[in-house]
Amino acid sequence: MTRGKQKIEAQRRNAEKNQKSKGSQLEARVVALKVSCPICKTQLANQNQLGDHYASKHPKDKPPSESS
Q1: CA distances from 1 to 4, 11, 12, 15, 30 (A)
Q2: Region (Disordered): which ranges (predicted)?
Q3: Does residue 22 surpass a pLDDT of 70?
Q4: With contact defined as beta carbons under 8 Å apart, do 44 and 28 qualify?
Q5: Counting Cβ atoms within 10 Å, is residue 47 exposed (0-12), middle (13-18) or buried (19+)?
Q6: CB atoms within 10 A of CB 3
Q7: E strands, the chain, in order
Q8: How do residues 24-64 score in pLDDT, each as one tens digit?
């Protein structure tokens, strides 16, 4: 009967391990996305991505400075 007990214990451990890794990543996303485009309200991670976004999506406009 030890195999049955080992199987149950392994299933319990796997369930605990999987439960910790699952979940929403919304909190991490909110922390990571700190810069937003004032024109289209797209959230970006940093100022370099904002510059690239302006170059591709808003080529006629200049990106805002880092201080604003």
Answers
A1: 5, 16, 17, 22, 49
A2: 1-26, 47-68
A3: no
A4: no
A5: middle
A6: 7
A7: 35-36, 43-44
A8: 777 777 777 888 899 999 989 888 999 999 999 999 998 88
